[in-house]
Design goal:
five-stranded parallel β-sheet, globular, disordered C terminus, 45% helix, binds zinc ion, alpha/beta, binds adenosine-5'-diphosphate, single chain
C-alpha cells in the first residue's frame, strides 16, 4: 500500500522544502495545493481569477475548488503522496479521508512542522524558488551557490511570490490559526500526528521526518537504497 503523508504547518514552516527531500529520498509524489492554485490562476479562467483574488488577500481558497484539484490528481499512483499545504480545513480533511478510502488507501502519518511566528516573517521574506524545477531557496539560510542560478537545474528564472510579504503573512497566519490549526487535534485523535522542530536546520528537520517515517510507518517504500529511511533493515 502507498505511504501517504501530510505535512502540516504555518506558511514558511518548511513544508515545500521537506517535500522535495522526501521526493529525493523516497520517490514520493508531491501534491502541493499552493502550486496547483498558482497554475490555476495563471490559466486566466474565471475560476483562476477568483483564485488569484483570494490568494492575493492571503485568504484560503474555497474548499470546493481545492478539493476538486486534489481529486483530479489522486489518480496518479506511486510509492505515496506527500500532501503539502493540504488539507487546510476540517472539511478538506474529511474530503481527503473519503477520497483515499474510495481507493483503499489511508494517511500513514501527519507531520507537523513547528516554527515560531517570529521566525516565519524571516522565512517568508527571504524565500525564492526556481521557476525551472521548483527548488526552494532562501536569501540567508539556503542561498544558491552561484548568485542568480539554480543549483539543481541551472535555470536563471528565480522567482519571488507576490504574497510573500509581511502584510499578507499576517492574514495567512490568522487563517492558519483559525482554520488549519484545529486539524492538529483532528489528526491527534487518530493517533498519527507527529511533531518535528522546524527551527532546526533543513538537514536536521529532514532526518527527523525520515525518523518518523522509519519508526512510525510500517509500510516500506519501493526503494531499497541504503540511504532510504524506509528501506528494509540490512
Ligand atoms: P505557504 O507555502 O506559504 O504555506 P502555499 O503555497 O501552500 O503557501 O499556499 C499559498 C496560498 O494558496 C494560500 O495562502 C491560500 O490562499 C492558497 N491555498 C493553498 N493551499 C490551500 C488549501 N489547501 N486550501 C485553501 N487555500 C489554499
Ligand atoms: P512552506 O512550504 O511551509 O511555506 P518553504 O519550504 O517554502 O515553507 O520554506 C520557507 C522558506 O524557509 C524558504 O525560503 C526555505 O528555503 C526556508 N527554510 C525551509 N526550511 C528551513 C529550515 N529548517 N531552516 C532555515 N530555513 C528554512
Ligand atoms: Zn531549478
Amino acid at each position: 500500500m502507498p505511504t501517504n503523508i501530510i505535512l502540516l504547518g504555518p506558511p514558511g514552516a518548511g513544508k515545500g522544502t521537506q517535500a522535495r527531500k522526501l521526493i529525493e529520498d523516497h520517490g514520493m509524489v508531491q501534491l502541493s495545493t499552493g502550486d496547483m492554485l498558482r497554475e490555476a490562476r495563471a490559466s486566466g479562467t474565471k475560476t483562476g481569477q477568483r483564485v488569484a483574488e483570494m490568494m492575493d488577500r492571503g485568504e484560503l481558497v474555497t474548499d470546493e475548488i481545492v478539493i476538486n484539484l486534489i481529486r483530479e490528481r489522486l489518480t496518479v499512483g506511486g510509492p505515496g503522496f506527500i500532501f503539502d499545504g493540504f488539507p487546510r480545513t476540517l472539511a478538506q480533511a474529511d474530503a481527503l479521508g473519503s477520497l483515499l478510502e474510495e481507493q483503499g488507501q489511508a494517511i500513514a502519518a501527519v507531520i507537523e512542522i513547528k516554527v515560531d511566528d517570529t521566525q516565519l516573517v524571516a522565512r517568508i521574506s527571504g524565500r525564492f524558488t526556481c521557476g525551472g524545477c521548483g527548488e526552494v531557496y532562501h536569501d540567508r539560510t539556503r542561498p544558491t551557490q552561484t548568485v542568480g542560478t539554480c543549483d539543481v537545474c541551472g535555470s536563471d528564472r528565480l522567482l519571488r511570490r507576490a504574497d510573500d510579504n509581511a502584510e499578507s503573512l499576517k492574514v495567512r497566519l490568522l487563517e492558519y490559526y483559525k482554520k488549519t490549526s484545529p486539524l492538529i487535534g483532528y489528526f491527534w485523535r487518530d493517533g498519527n500526528l507527529h511533531r518535528v522542530d522546524g527551527l532546526a536546520s533543513i538537514e536536521t528537520v529532514s532526518s527527523e521526518v525520515n525518523r518518523v517515517m522509519r519508526d512510525h510507518i510500517s509500510t516500506r517504500c519501493s526503494h531499497d537504497d541504503v540511504g532510504c529511511a524506509s528501506a528494509p533493515p540490512a
